[in-house]
Design a protein that fits this description.
single chain, mainly beta, eleven-stranded antiparallel β-sheet, about 55% strand, globular
């Protein structure tokens, strides 16, 4: 049986650059279905990102990225609960049994750009850490220990070839559900890695997973 409910949402985003060259993005996203006078499947998402300027160390360059987001869902009826997989959680984490209504996620990544090339390929090693707190309804956000992801990898690109950036990453998860491995290796191709601000978008539902 279908449910006919109007949806009301707001998406506010501000991006700016500081004189020293750091880029910042801040956003607020809220949305809810309305059933008569009751809010259902409601979402509040706060997001912030720092995309640092390039730091020069002789022939090497380094860039830092820091991301933090907080999400709260309430009066869930048809929509799924929050998880900590990928976009607002631990990258490549495939546990689908870790769910909640409140989530705090923080990510830090450092990328080193090297001056050397091999057969036309540029290389950029990277290291990162993700932390995620998740709480069910009626529990405080920090009632349980956080989930974490530690990892390193390397990106490579050859401007003379048709495929884009290729990335190899190794992940270690100190805490996992019983059916999820603590280690994972992932290879991704055709990546587009750059700072990109959002301008005009078509109206849509708030995406929180």
């Amino acid at each position: 049986m279908g449910v006919d409910r109007p949806y009301l949402g707001i998406d506010i985003e501000k991006s700016f650059v500081r004189p020293k060259g750091n880029f910042y993005t801040l956003s607020l996203r809220m949305g809810s279905f309305i059933n008569k006078t009751r809010m259902e499947d409601a979402t509040i998402l706060l997001y912030g990102q720092l995309f640092s300027r390039l730091y020069h160390f002789k022939r090497f360059m380094l860039r830092r990225t820091v991301t933090a987001d907080f999400t709260y869902v309430f009066n869930q009826r048809l929509n799924t609960l929050l998880d900590i997989r990928d976009s607002y959680g631990l990258e490549a984490f495939r546990a689908d049994s870790v769910l909640g209504t409140k989530r705090l996620h923080v990510r830090y990544e450092t990328t080193l750009f090297m001056p050397w090339k091999f057969l036309g390929f540029h290389f950029a090693p990277l290291a990162f850490v993700d932390l995620a707190l998740l709480a069910p309804k009626d529990k405080l956000l920090w009632f349980d220990a956080p989930y974490a992801s530690l990892g390193a990898g390397i990106r490579t690109r050859n401007e003379n070839l048709v495929f884009g950036t290729v990335e190899l990453k190794v992940f270690y998860y100190p805490r996992t559900p019983e059916d999820v491995s603590s280690f994972k290796i992932q290879v991704t191709s055709n990546l587009r890695i750059k700072y990109s601000a959002s301008f005009v978008r078509a109206p849509s539902f708030i995406t929180y997973n």
